[in-house]
Specification:
- By secondary structure, this protein is α+β, with helices and mostly antiparallel strands.
- About 35% of the residues lie in helices and about 20% in strands.
- The chain has a seven-stranded mixed sheet with strand order 17-18-16-15-21-22-23. It has a six-stranded mixed sheet with strand order 3-2-1-5-14-13, sandwiched between helices.
- Helix 12 crosses helix 13.
- The radius of gyration is 22 Å and the shape is globular.
- The chain starts with a strand and ends in a 10-residue tail after the last helix.
């Protein structure tokens, strides 16, 4: 068998390809950003064509960096930004519009209309999700209603929908020339169209949202051979698909109920493995599919989704020019001892868990003339840590078990100050693994298991190793006072968007 497994990790701001050996070590990597398109306030789009082009480019670059050929790969897996909706023509492979990104809020009126019958939790018992602009189903409905000719084509099966995993697998396996149209339960569970119990599309919800079943992909296991690639990865089994946050859970080897991880990327996503039965949330969390290996029972999770964390640092760089590169935020924040009384609530896309307030918008509160850019930099990092604490408290309440430690991964975990702030604000140890980009690793693991490159999950557990641990050091009185002020700041963002806006 070839000696390596590759993963394409297609994220919100960039696409990377990583190649791993049998020990889970990184052999080669390549990464490239893609354009963020903001046509109107609250709208966020990507070019599906650019994403496919970037995927091919980083695969070629990673193979070249490792001195490898496609034939050296036993399999390829895909991790992806999850709720982003792509709709395209089956015959030509051309998108009918730009992809509508998970952060986009244009579907708020569709969600409001659906909530008039049964409220925001109308579909929660079936899907595990509240009605919110975050999820893919309303995005599909928006495209069907607003792009001429698409609805008729969708009803005839000539127009296809997919989250980004589906778009990539379809193109990798031939596109218009026989490409397979599939997704996995971890991604399907984020559309608000899948029944968590049956792992199939729910006809009642499809009818309520007026979405034709003919345009939806087949739901296949997260680990299994879908087809063999053509083109840049010619002949390589395409054998694993996981939504990016579930891929990180898998890469962090959280295979037992009660194990959790937090990914620090464009947003933050805290997932807790709850086993083979879905657990409902009474505290603003999502019930979602973690993964399904072959014909085994699906594994479910509770998830706390935070919309804006790493993208707040990017905003500070790109929109304000306060820093020239993302790593500078740590140096700037270290010039001060505290936030100077300033709190930054980054509700750019409304607030996700545990509030689910699409009417919220971002705010900086507590400003005085004493505050300077060092305090703002620290407030940006603290916003990530405070939002994570809100989710952890909700998860503790839903699960009945207090989190004892937190495994972390993603691009922001290289920021040592943020990791210390997180330990201080949570009052639990924070543990970073040796391979911090566990999203790509999880996708590689799912693909490798499908072809026998790894024998089972015990072998994957043996690969995991800690890199560094941070322990709490903040005075308890200060911790609770600052958290109380944070919660006060959050309430100031509520109700900013008015019904006619």
């Amino acid at each position: 068998m070839p000696g390596y497994v590759a993963a394409i990790d297609q994220g919100t701001t960039s696409t990377r390809c990583m190649v791993f050996d049998h020990s889970g070590g990184v052999v080669a990597t390549a990464q490239k950003e893609h354009e963020q398109i903001f046509p109107r306030p609250g709208w966020v789009e990507h070019s599906p064509g650019e994403i496919w082009e970037r995927a091919c480019g980083v695969v070629e670059a990673a193979l070249a960096a490792g001195g490898l050929r496609a034939s050296d790969l036993a399999a390829v897996g895909i991790a992806n930004q999850r709720e982003t909706a792509v709709v395209w023509e089956r015959r030509t492979g051309e998108p009918v519009a730009n992809a509508i990104v998970w952060q986009d809020t244009r579907t708020d009126r569709i969600c409001d209309a659906l909530a008039r019958e049964g409220g925001r939790d109308r579909f929660r018992a079936t899907t595990g999700l509240p009605l919110a602009t975050y999820f893919s189903g309303p995005k599909i409905r928006w495209i069907l209603d607003n792009v001429p000719g698409v609805r008729d084509g969708a009803e005839r099966g000539e127009i296809l929908f997919g989250t980004v995993d589906t778009w990539l697998v379809w193109n990798l396996t031939g596109g218009p020339d026989g490409g397979v149209h599939v997704t996995d339960p971890s991604n399907a569970s984020r559309t608000m169209l899948m029944d968590l119990a049956t792992l199939d599309w729910d006809d009642g919800i499809l009818a309520a949202m007026d979405i034709p079943r003919a345009m939806l992909p087949a739901i296949r296991p997260s680990s299994g051979v879908y087809a063999h690639a053509r083109g840049v990865l010619d002949g390589v089994p395409v054998a694993g698909v996981l939504g990016d946050q579930q891929a990180a859970l898998f890469g962090q080897v959280c295979f037992d109920p009660g194990e959790a991880k937090n990914t620090y990327g464009t947003g933050n996503f805290l997932l807790l493995n709850t086993g083979t039965e879905p657990v409902g949330s009474a505290n603003g969390l999502l019930t979602t599919v973690g993964y399904r290996l072959g014909d085994r029972d699906a594994v479910y999770c509770l998830e706390g989704a935070i919309a804006v964390t790493g993208s707040l640092v990017q905003w500070l760089r790109d929109n304000l020019g306060l820093i020239a590169s993302a790593p500078e935020i740590e140096d700037m924040a270290q010039t001060v001892e505290d936030n100077g009384g300033a709190y930054f609530v980054p509700a750019f896309s409304g607030l996700f868990a545990p509030y689910w307030r699409s009417d919220a918008r971002g705010a900086i509160v507590g400003l005085t003339r004493y505050v300077h850019r060092g305090h703002l930099a620290r407030a940006v990092l603290e916003a990530t840590a405070f939002q994570t604490r809100e989710v952890v408290e909700a998860m503790n309440a839903d699960s009945g078990v207090a989190l004892a430690s937190l495994k972390v991964d993603g691009g922001m975990v290289g920021n040592d100050l943020l990791m210390q702030l997180q330990a201080d604000i949570l009052d639990v140890p924070v543990i970073r693994p040796q391979v911090a980009e566990t999203t790509a690793l999880g996708a590689a693991y799912a693909a490798g298991l499908a072809v026998g490159f790894w024998a089972g999950t015990d072998e994957l557990r043996a690969n995991w190793a800690a890199d560094r641990e941070w322990t709490p050091g903040m005075d308890p009185g200060r911790r609770e006072r600052e958290y109380r002020m944070w919660q006060k700041a959050v309430t100031r963002t509520f109700g900013w968007v008015e019904a006619d806006g």
